[in-house]
Design brief:
Helicase, Ruva Protein, domain 3; DNA-binding; 263 residues; 2 domains; alpha+beta; N-terminal domain of MutM-like DNA repair proteins; 6 helices
Length: 263
DNA sequence: ACTACGTCCTGCGAGC
DNA sequence: TGCTCGCAGGACGTAG
């Protein structure tokens, strides 16, 4: 599940391959999710940016191609066009072919005229690693909703780019039960700090690979070795030694420590 | 308006 | 051993 650190790792590698190049040919899976990939033939890449988990390809006619990798999306230069999970590809003017591979097809590719976003992207919260993400703003945003804290994080509204892995990690580090609905200002500050810590460390480590994630070079990330909560159901808490438990919160698997993260 | 839950999609692993 | 079946999850659609 590519979240902010994985998408950022991909962005950094993709940028030098694409900027200054233009698309000579493209094709895609017929699904509405991917068909927009075909629309950018003849256009050039001016920049490769990221907002939350979205990759933004700024094109030289002022429009943007937006890719969300969903659960299993991968962008791979030189991908074999016979790959059964290839969903889209773009041929560049240097004959390099960039392939979009997505086993589960949860990803999506969209074209927007600049800034005309819709849906989650339109209402995306601030970038967690930027100065726009402040405790004050975070506190106000969380206060406005009565949903569970983890659900709010996954909604992308209070802050952008946090998915299931880093939500569990951040709540663990902040000592917050993910199913709680209200946080004190002090706890909100701890969660704010934890989100920045787990995400920035994961970016430094090139993302987390549990199953599908690989970067543009086909390499796995290294951050899975730094996870202390997610996926460790039944293993001892690194703080208190109690067995970590797994539960379902609003339909999403959630691991936590019953002792360190009290309701 | 807001919250909760179902849906998409396919590979994999648990269990018979 | 080989098969079936349920699970995993981000964003969005729908229902209450």
């Amino acid at each position: 599940m590519p979240e902010l650190p994985e998408v950022e790792s991909i962005r950094r590698q993709l940028k030098p391959l694409l900027v200054g190049r233009y698309v000579t040919e493209s094709n895609s899976h017929p699904s509405d999710k991917f068909i927009a990939a075909r629309e950018i033939v003849g256009l050039g890449f001016e920049a490769v940016l990221r907002r939350g988990k979205y990759l933004l390809f700024i094109l030289d006619n002022g429009s943007e191609m937006i890719i969300h990798l969903g659960m299993t999306g991968q962008l791979i230069p030189g991908l074999d066009l016979s790959d059964p999970h290839l969903r889209a590809w773009w041929k560049l003017d240097n004959d390099v072919i960039l392939g979009y591979r997505d086993v589960r097809r949860f990803g999506r590719i969209r074209i927007y005229s600049s800034g005309e976003y819709e849906g989650t992207l339109k209402n995306l919260g601030p970038e967690p690693l930027s100065d726009d993400f402040t405790v004050d703003q975070f506190y106000d945003s969380l206060k406005r909703s009565n949903r569970k804290i983890k659900t709010q994080l996954l909604s992308q509204l209070p802050v952008a780019g946090v998915g299931n892995i880093y939500a569990d990690e951040a709540c663990f580090h902040a000592g917050i039960y993910p199913g709680v609905r209200k946080l004190t200002r002090a706890k909100t500050a701890e969660l704010h700090h934890s989100i920045r810590k787990v995400l920035s460390r994961a970016v430094e480590n090139g993302g987390t690979t549990l199953r599908d994630y690989v970067n543009v070079d086909g390499e796995q990330g290294n951050n899975q070795h730094y996870l202390v909560c997610y996926g460790r159901d039944g293993e001892p808490c690194i703080n208190c030694g109690e067995e970590l438990r797994r539960t379902i919160i609003d339909g999403r698997g959630t691991t936590f420590c019953r002792s360190c993260q009290r309701r």
